[in-house]
Design brief:
Layout: H1 2-28, E1 52-57, E2 65-68, H2 73-83, E3 105-111, E4 114-122, E5 130-133, E6 136-137, E7 140-141, E8 145-148, H3 153-160, H4 189-228
Antiparallel strand pairs: 1-2, 1-3, 3-4, 4-5, 5-8, 6-7
Helix pairs in contact: 2-3
Length: about 230
């Protein structure tokens, strides 16, 4: 009996120790984690985007023009649309004759003051704007290629400060953009409507006179035919 009692007492002590330590272990392990502590997830940094564009060449000063995305987002977007598509595009045309290219303007795209892309624009080229992607790029080697530039190239550069003739009718590659166009403040819409109405009236009177001549001629012919009968 003593041996049985001793064995029962040992089992009771072991059970007490086990039950006493289990909550501590459970408390030490955070909910949802088992075994070793879970490894924290790595955070992915957002990819940096262009924030600066510089323009040099032509009659511009050596320092050129700098357009910041933070200061003028609309102008920055216009310039990006002129060159961003060229990065991965397939060349569209052969190398034009130098005499037909006109003034060259070099455009660089930067990310945090580090140049990543470089293009040469010719807004006054014969037959329409041209763009050149040099093989040597700040971010690495690319295929040398020539492209037909957007019709809005000249106006985008002019709005940036490049001394070019205004072409507001071709902004965004189409007609009627209106950017850079100065409208006359003394224009009278009523006067324009009156002029348009006058033109319609003159046209109506002219058509009426022509119709009267035709009817008179027909009447004369009918009279002559009747007399002969």
């Amino acid at each position: 009996m003593r041996r049985v009692a001793a064995a029962a007492g040992a089992l009771a002590i072991a059970a007490a120790v086990t039950l006493g330590t289990t909550p501590a272990v459970a408390q030490a392990t955070p909910a949802g984690q088992t075994g070793a502590a879970a490894t924290p997830k790595a955070t992915t940094k957002p990819k940096p985007t262009p924030d600066t564009i510089t323009i040099t060449g032509g009659e511009l000063p050596e320092s050129g023009i700098k357009v910041l995305q933070a200061e003028d987002p609309k102008l920055f977007r216009m310039l990006m649309e002129e060159v961003s598509w060229i990065a991965g595009a397939t060349p569209q045309t052969s190398t034009p004759a130098k005499k037909n290219l006109g003034t060259k303007y070099t455009v660089q795209i930067l990310i945090k003051d580090k140049a990543t892309q470089l293009y040469e624009l010719y807004p006054q080229a014969t037959g329409g704007p041209r763009a050149h992607r040099p093989a040597t790029q700040p971010s690495g080697k690319k295929t040398d290629g020539w492209f037909y530039g957007r019709l809005s190239m000249s106006e985008s550069l002019r709005l940036s400060g490049v001394p070019l003739k205004a072409k507001p009718d071709v902004v965004n590659g189409g007609i009627g953009g209106g950017v850079g166009e100065t409208l006359s403040s003394d224009s009278d819409p009523v006067e324009g409507a009156n002029e348009l109405f006058g033109q319609f009236r003159r046209l109506f009177l002219l058509n009426g006179a022509l119709l009267l001549v035709i009817l008179t001629g027909l009447a004369g012919m009918a009279f002559l035919i009747r007399r002969r009968i």
